[in-house]
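re: that complex we talked abt at group meeting.

here r the seqs, copy pasted straight from the sheet so there may be weird spacing, ignore it
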Amino acid sequence: MPLQTHRGSRRPPRDARTEPKEEPVFDRLLAALAPRRVVHAHCDLPCGIYDPEQARIEAESCYKILEKYEDNSDQHFRTRAIAIKEERAELTKHHIDVMWHDYFKPEHVEKFPDLHDVCWQASKQASKVKQSLDIAEAKKLLELIDRIDEMWKATGGPEKTRKAAAVAA
Amino acid sequence: LIEPALGRLLRSWRHRVAVSGQSMAPGLLPGDWLLVDPDGYARRPPGPGDVVVTPDPRSPDRWLIKRVTRIEPDGRLELAGDAPDRSTDSRVFGPVEPTALGRPWFRYWPPPRWGRVR
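got the structure back, here u go
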């Protein structure tokens, strides 16, 4: 993100009514001193908070919705169930991707060589659950998320990427 | 004696930067303008406690400013912000390669904060 300096820039001709005032000397001096680049001392949002539980809750919703779908023959209910399950499955996939892209680091892959494969399978499985009415697919999704959870725990995730809940005194 | 100092000043003037973000507070604040010596770590590599300017390993066009907290056995640098709860650093992107490092050494703006970067 290079900073613009005013040096050497010539104003384009303008309408007389909108002609701006001459730049004060101080502004021109500052412009000449202005840095050329920005260095970032930032916190990206989200602020390093990660937990596969977020994916699991959405995936559990899919599981439960499919259970209820089976037990209910009302057409309106079933239509709603499918719509909501698709939405939840999409959210599951998003949360799996956040773990994969943002939480896991190269050292974690060294420790768990199948990390990429598990995350990939889990994302794909979330797509499958979105399409399917088979509860076994939802169960498989939960199992894959649990494997991500194991890797998150084994890499210190709970201590590093969650904030401890306030304890009532 | 004068010549190396002048060389460093000219090099650094070409690499002047503006700080954005709060992760190096209170030492470096958003809006601080710094001189960065691109050869500052050429002879002596940075050690724990040194401030470095380095490309963001996730997006090399973007430059980060952080403090070195540890040197890994393989020579890579672990970086952290001085304000850890407002910083994205090696906790997120892991240690970084010790290449393409600049040494921010002087704050020339704003005038009340004029002085060496520590």
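couple things i noticed - The interface with chain A takes residues 14-25, 28, 30, 33-34, 36, 53, 56, 62-66, 81, 85-88, 91-94, 104, 108-109 of chain B (CB under 8 Å). The longest strand of chain B covers residues 59-71.
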